[in-house]
Amino acid sequence: MTYVLSALADTRRDLSALFAPSSIAVVGASNDPAKYGNWLAVRALRDGHRRPAHLINKTRSTILGHPAAPSLSALGEPVDLAVIAVPAAGFDDAVDDAIAARVGAIVAITAGLGETGADGLARQNALVARLREAGIPMLGPNCLGVLDNTTGLDATVNEFRPGSVSVLSQSGNVAIDLAEHFTEQGLGVARFASLGNCADLDVADLIDSCVDHDGTSAIAVYCEGFKDGRKFARAAARAADAGKPVVLLSVGRGAASTRGAASHTGSLVTSGVVLEAVCEATGTELVSSPFEMANLLQALVRTRPPAGSRIAVLADGGGHASLASDSLEEAGLRVDEFTADLSSRVAAELPPTAGVSNPIDLAGGGEQDITSFERVARRLIESAETDAVLMTGYFGGYGEYDPAVAPREIQAGHDIGALVAASGASFVAQTMFADSRPAAALRESGVAVYRDVEHATWALSRLARRARTASHPLPALPIPAAPLAETGYWPARRALFAAGIPFVPAAEVTTVEELEAAVTDLRYPLVLKALGDEHKSDNGGVVLNIADHDTLISAWNDVQRRLAPPVCSIEEMADLTDSVELIIGVRRDPTFGPIALVGIGGVYTELLKDTRCALGPVSADQARDLLLSLRGSALLTGFRGKPPVDVDAAARLVATLSVFAAEHPEIGEIECNPIAVTPTTAVALDARIILAPRS
What we know:
Number of strands: 29
Shape: flat
CATH topology of the largest domain: Rossmann fold
CATH architecture of the largest domain: 3-Layer(aba) Sandwich
Strand order of the largest sheet: 3-4-2-1-5-6-7
CATH class of the largest domain: Alpha Beta
Distance between the termini: 28 Å
């Protein structure tokens, strides 16, 4: 089978002029402090010691007391980055001037283009075509600019504390909100890029650039839509594999996104489900708020993911010890009891009243000797019994209780941080005094610190899940096959059978004479299906357990009288003894392409909604993992004395269907519900194909 190759490294855009320009010009520089052109000019001039800063204004020869040129072309010297902040009416001329001056990159602050409607979009697209022909990348338009704290570039209107997280956002307010949370947690920004309309550069281009940026350790993305979902997936997977995880906050993830879906698969695969599948495939971390994003980023940039799920709890009070243990176990992590050997080594560092199993309760050890935190942490980190340590409780408050302890407590924070850094341990702290100087010492030394234990355990659980996947190879899309001409039940059945999907023996009939002829090649019991209604079982259009000829004719006459179907299917009834019914399907997302779905199926599909999705096409191994991750997977592996079913056969069927759907981009939704999985085989009992609307 021939597949479309993924984008190659040499197709990535060179954005050095955008983030590290040798010179900058503000087009539309202004003396008016209420205008973007003024704010940007002030910042460019302030940083003029780093790079030449030019001011462009068509009507004024001086701006802010500095010389101004009427155009970029009139400068007489090259400009690497042009920041355009002119009214929409003058934007075309400004872009043409930038092309004539052969600038290296453009940041388009100007609004009133593609976001205004069809005419504005056509104009915007024409400008992008000219820029691409000239080889000039453009950020925006309708954006808030760009910043790179590692190169001293400040071509935006917001302040961002320096750090190691690059922020790519379609919303200026969301970026500011995130930066506030960063400040609270001692994080900062390496790069900021306002996405705007993404007319030329999109979020994938910017992620790729950040992957190649030494100053970026993680990438925060707020995006309201993706121009090319597969391109985003490739960039995000590349970032994850490079150790620079992408944390994504997006909108429009609810069920409303699937209104009008024609199949169970279509209604179950919401935009939120699609994003979850894409994030799982690419190692992207999906979050629901700026606060959650900052919490997770703190762990990602400061904490090594644990090698397993065994967590040691180091607390200085029984209440916090119990709360942390419960929270960890609810998050799917383990708080295993220590061996006698580890407990004795911990006990050697603490008073006799301390609890030295797991969780540990210092029981006054902190008040007596603040260095006991570091000593016990060392014992836990050195032990092969633990994968990570959660320190929880009162640390950071002892100095307030006893001012004489304050400097030693701050030093203890630094000592714990140094221990964690030297050992490479997975270590997270929670404290009631998250704003204290000892907590700041922990953060400064590289330890993630949280105010609430549920946030600390949530972050640890995300890290543990992340550690289970080392790389993120993405499925390639096959070369499209000849489009399907028909999509009714029998055309779908024939096409899928030809692709390798097994079905029970059956025949398509329209008259009683055809029925009589067909049953000579079939074995009783039979199933009669009245076609033309996707919910035929609900409407009495499926007659099961037809045991003989007389019952068959009676069923035929009844169905014809009640439903008058244009065509029927007569099929051998599958032996469902010890079988499990599944739903499998694929929905083609307009942005990300085929999304494969598996779930507990049959008449319980909508009731149980026990489904899992993945970016398609999927392999048989991936399909098996999906099936075994269902809540009802015990039904597949043997439950209450029933034999296990042939999961491998079901997985091969899922993989075959997902490849077929990927080969046919004209398909919007495709579904087999149910498939019957028995101890020896898997067979489809129904099929449905819905073509995507023509765009």
